[in-house]
Amino acid sequence: MLTFVDWLMFIPASILLSMTFGPNNLTSVVNGMRYGPAVAFKACTGRIIVFVAMLILTASGLGILLATSQTAFEIIKWCGVVYLAFLGVRIFLSSSDESFLKSNGTKHVYTGMFPLIKKEFMLAAANPKAILIMTAVLPQFIDMHGDYFQQFAIISVTFLCTEYLAAWIYGLAGHYVGTRNFGDHVQKRINHATGVMFILFATVLALSEHSK
Hints:
This protein is an all-alpha fold and 212 residues long. Helix content is 75%, strand content 0%. Helix 1 (4-19) crosses helix 9, helix 2 (23-35) runs antiparallel to helix 3 and helix 3 packs antiparallel against helix 9. The model is unreliable at 98-106 (pLDDT under 50).
């Protein structure tokens, strides 16, 4: 049975997993720069939807089949590579972003939460490593002699909460940067750096191999 102490021990591990810097957390930084930490927090719902589906698959045992499938891994991986590279190139070539905060603290109106949630969703769905984490890491904190589904539910909810926490923290960091009074030249440099990071993520994903 998952004791209170065991649960407390899982929380730091879950925070570490959630705080790992990747495409989704980079997106939280960008959202924080443009719209503030609250929007970055809400946009995280996109990745949460994907993770809930993966957790359900893992709990049912289907996650193991997906995680061990070379074909599924390759399909998801290369879809992810293309999407990350596309985002990287688009951001790199974009002009200065007028959605950054100006010196008077006002923000430009954005088009709504759906595009931001959709982007988080796509990034999470295009990451084949996520299902591997669900199937290989989270079950290690479960006592197989206890109620498996009850313990898995507690572990899963905790993990999802730390994902929201990570999105808010990265969004807060982005917000701090976004409140600086940048000129067009600096904003272009930020776009270039962000685009390069997405392209690097695509490269790392392309070079990754399926764990046997």
